[in-house]
Amino acid sequence: MKNIYPIIGMHCASCKALIEKMVSGVDGVSSVNVNFATEKMIVEFDEKVTSTEMIAAAVESAGSYRLVQQSDGMVMEPATSMASSNKMEASHEGVHHDHASMLRQNELDGLTKKVMLVGVGLLPFVALMIFMFVRFFNPSFMMLNLGVVNLEQFNYEIDVLNLIQFVLATPILFIGGSQFFTSAWSALKSKTANMDTLIAVGTFTAWIYSTVVTFLPKLLGNFGGGTLNVFFEASVFITFFILLGRLLEAKAKAQAGQAIQKLLHMQSKDAVVIRNGNEIRLPIGEVKVGDHIVVRPGEKIAVDGVIIEGTSSVDESMMTGEPLPVSKQAGDRVLGASINRSGYIIFVAEKVGADTLFAQIIKVVEEAQGTQAPIQKMADQISAVFVPVVIVVAGLSFLFWVTIAPSLGLVSTDVNVLQLGIYIATTVLIIACPCALGLATPTAVMVGTGKAARSGILVKDAQALEIMHKVNTIVFDKTGTLTFGKPTVNEFHQLNESSEEEILPIIAGIENMSSHPLSDAVVEYVERKGLKRLPGNQIENFSNVEGKGVSALVGGNTYSIGNAVLMKEKQIELSNDLQRRIDELSSKGGTVVLVGKDTQAIGIFVIADELKPDAHDVISKLNNLGAKVVMLTGDSNKTAENIAQQLGINRVISGVLPTGKSDAIKALKSELGENAVIAMVGDGINDAPALAQSDIGIAMGTGTDVAIETGDIVLLNGSLEKLVESIKISQQTLSVIKQNLFWAFGYNIIGIPVAAGLLYPFLGILLSPIIASAAMAFSSVSVVLNSLRLNRD
């Protein structure tokens, strides 16, 4: 069983590793992947050994996290994937999405209130810092001396200002920042550490030191000279900035993850169904296959089906990315979530619920956003050990500045080294941030896949999105990809004295027994001439010779219809004059289909498949991008070369049978070498093995389940222009990922050494824990905001 679960309460990259660790330890769980950016977990498990409840308990044992499951209102139902028989998926009717969104909104509202309350408690410390700032630049400014509380019986004094700060800071830290400590404690019980561990240790260290300075200052008198200062304001500002950063990050992540929500909102909530002759409005979940559904102008189409009455223009842009409405009439297919723009139509429901194309798109986008790009693996490996390493660095920094630095003359004798060591260690703990590393890739993938889906490009996983920009060789299957895939007969040449009325019905009768597109073209041609095809009961010994043609026995004569190879096998003579004529017809770019009767050639069909209008422009753009463009076809070399010349394609692999396409891709890989990254573009129907053999399989979708199943990337409306757009989206996404990773690594590589006091011996500069907390909080936000730029590019 494979399920997708929303997770509530995640706030750092270490949360991902912690939850994965706890869930993977549950018996029966075979794989688990948590996406920090989308806050979702994909877990595969044996339902005979474990259950959702056990997995939820494991999630909760990792800390203050919550898994949204069935008891929370999530409906589970069988997946529609053709490739799996034992998968389950969350219902895409919006139930669990809405509930998870509600829980996240409640969490966001609570965080907003907490930020506001902590912000109010921060005001006295802001006033104090302003006062100290003015005193620094104007020493003659009045002194702030509130006196001391003299406790003679204990032989020490308490500074009133420090006492006030203690009273104000303590509830802010332990109530306003309670989540840091509960999360750190949960991680400790799990024998691990997370981002909250750093925050809790850092703020508590600053608070406990300041408390000792306030109430027991004599304990610290043996660690050098100078005035003992308190860091209460550091604890308060750190709490505020980190809470504020998480609030902004949550809002930015919500904006980045709007692709799924926007798609869900496109779906109709109900439908007008004809039951017992009456029109009744039903919730979409009650619509059944076979129902007759009425759609008026301006209404959304509820499910997938076929029009049985009326004509209209339908806006399918949200499904295919095609901006112009499509004309529809009886017999045409309509898709759920599209909009009926003009006419009144009635259609019969063919696919409902999770079987609709819309539900499959939601499923694919959701799963793609939960996958991990290869470029993320290094960041995850670093994030997994980041917190322990930072704790060690903070501890070593403390020991260095307290024990070694004074002996090296790096610290003045009038400086209290214990105070200095705690100040530096706290800053190291606070500035370190694995969150930016954890968010760098998944946020960009989330926005990139969402942008692609809105454009009618379905990206199946993050790896496909990453590899797409590296593609340097693009192989096109000709039929249905560069062409419309519907061959038509352009010419028929009779070679004997028989009349068309005599010979064409026989040919049509034989071809009607084949399912090949060329056979369909011949049958349509004969019917357009008003001739009836020969009944099947008058045809004997029908044989379909794959890749060559068909043959049958009619009235004691053997008829063969196909290519020159079939004619040779049937010992049908092709004279030199006839061969020159065949070559001449082939050179025009059509497919020549020969007709033989016994041992004599009696006719020639010239069949052509019309090129798509955008094919030439797209090939030109790909050539300009530096990609090698190859056309793969079963046509003869002359026909293929003629079409390739029209399109500007330099390389042709012709005469390839459907079963040989995969081998052709394999041979091309071997020929081009290991640096070749090959994308195969096909219709996803008869070239699935070739799509799988290539580095990236791109299916030209036409609303079919097969296309969605076979391609790594699916171009939903079958437009070749979307191929170029998918490359651009991949390039933009990878560019943003690299920018994010550069910032995330650069921030920590520079920030941690500076926080550890690297500049202090040379410039006397120490980084304040307050500045460190602000930098840490906004480092994550900056990564998310940078990813959101993809929506504007």
Summing up helix and strand content along with how strands pair, one would put the structural category as alpha+beta
Helix content: 40-55%
Basic shape: elongated
Question: Could you tell me how far the N terminus lies from the C terminus, measured between alpha carbons in angstroms?
Answer: 39 Å
Tally of alpha and pi helices? 27
Mean pLDDT equals 82
Strand order of the largest sheet: 18-30-29-28-19-26-27
* Percentage of residues in strands: 15-25%
List the helices and strands and how they pair.
Layout: E1 2-8, H1 13-24, E2 29-35, E3 40-45, H2 52-61, E4 66-67, E5 76-78, E6 88-90, H3 95-137, E7 148-151, E8 156-159, H4 160-176, H5 178-189, H6 195-215, H7 232-256, H8 258-266, E9 270-275, E10 278-283, E11 292-295, E12 304-309, E13 312-315, H9 317-320, E14 326-328, E15 333-334, E16 339-340, E17 345-351, H10 357-370, H11 376-404, H12 417-431, H13 435-454, E18 457-459, H14 462-468, E19 473-477, H15 478-482, E20 488-494, H16 500-511, H17 517-528, E21 540-545, E22 549-554, E23 557-562, H18 564-569, H19 576-586, E24 591-597, E25 600-608, H20 615-624, E26 628-632, H21 637-647, E27 651-653, H22 661-672, E28 678-682, H23 688-693, E29 696-700, H24 705-710, E30 713-715, H25 721-755, H26 760-763, H27 769-788
Parallel strand pairs: 19-26, 19-28, 26-27, 28-29, 29-30
Antiparallel strand pairs: 1-3, 1-4, 2-3, 5-6, 7-8, 9-10, 9-11, 11-17, 12-15, 12-17, 13-14, 13-16, 18-30, 20-25, 21-22, 22-23, 23-24, 24-25
Helix pairs in contact: 1-2, 3-4, 3-7, 4-6, 4-7, 5-6, 6-7, 6-12, 7-27, 8-13, 10-13, 11-12, 11-13, 12-25, 12-27, 13-25, 13-27, 14-25, 16-17, 25-27
